[in-house]
Design a protein that fits this description.
Elements lengths: L4 E4 L3 H14 L6 E2 L5 E5 L2 E6 L15 E4 L3 H13 L3 E12 L2 E9 L5 E7 L2
Parallel strand pairs: 1-4, 5-8
Antiparallel strand pairs: 2-3, 3-4, 6-7, 7-8
Helix pairs in contact: 1-2
C-alpha cells in the first residue's frame, strides 16, 4: 500500500543537509534533486521526498503526524538520531531507547527535522 512520503520545507538546503546525514547514517545515499527542485531519497525500496509547497505558501508540519523509518537494530537507530541532531535536527520525546507497550518492545528515537516535521526511527526488539 505504501508508495512514498513527502514533507514540505521552507529551506531545502537545510533539509538536504539533515536528510543526507540521517539517511547516510543508515546506509543510504545523498538525496538527488529533480527538475522541480524536489529532493528524493531512495532507500530499501521506499521513496522519501522533500519539497517546497507547490502552492507557494509556507511549508507547515502536520500536527499529530509522525513519519517512521524502520531500522535494522538499535545501533542504527541511534546513529540516525545522532546524525540528525548534528545536522540541525532537534531531539524530541524521550531519549532514544526501548519502550514497552502494546506492540512489544520497540527501540525508538525521535527527531524534528529543520522544518519541524516529526520523524521516528523504529526497531522492533525480538
Amino acid at each position: 500500500m505504501y508508495s512514498h512520503n513527502m514533507v514540505g520545507s521552507n529551506d531545502l538546503a537545510a533539509s538536504k543537509a539533515f536528510y543526507d546525514a540521517t539517511f547516510q547514517a543508515i546506509g543510504g545515499k545523498p538525496g538527488i534533486q529533480d527538475e522541480k527542485g524536489r529532493l528524493m531519497y531512495l532507500h530499501n525500496g521506499g521513496i522519501f521526498m522533500v519539497t517546497a509547497p507547490i502552492d507557494g505558501e509556507p511549508a507547515t508540519v502536520g500536527n499529530g503526524c509522525t513519519i517512521g523509518f524502520a531500522m535494522e537494530n538499535p545501533e542504527q537507530a541511534k546513529a540516525w538520531h545522532d546524525a540528525g541532531v548534528a545536522a540541525g535536527g532537534t531531539s524530541i520525546e524521550d531519549p532514544p531507547g526501548i519502550r514497552e507497550g502494546g506492540f512489544g518492545q520497540l527501540y525508538l528515537a525521535y527527531l524534528r527535522d529543520p522544518s519541524g516535521n516529526k520523524l521516528c526511527a523504529l526497531h522492533r526488539v525480538v
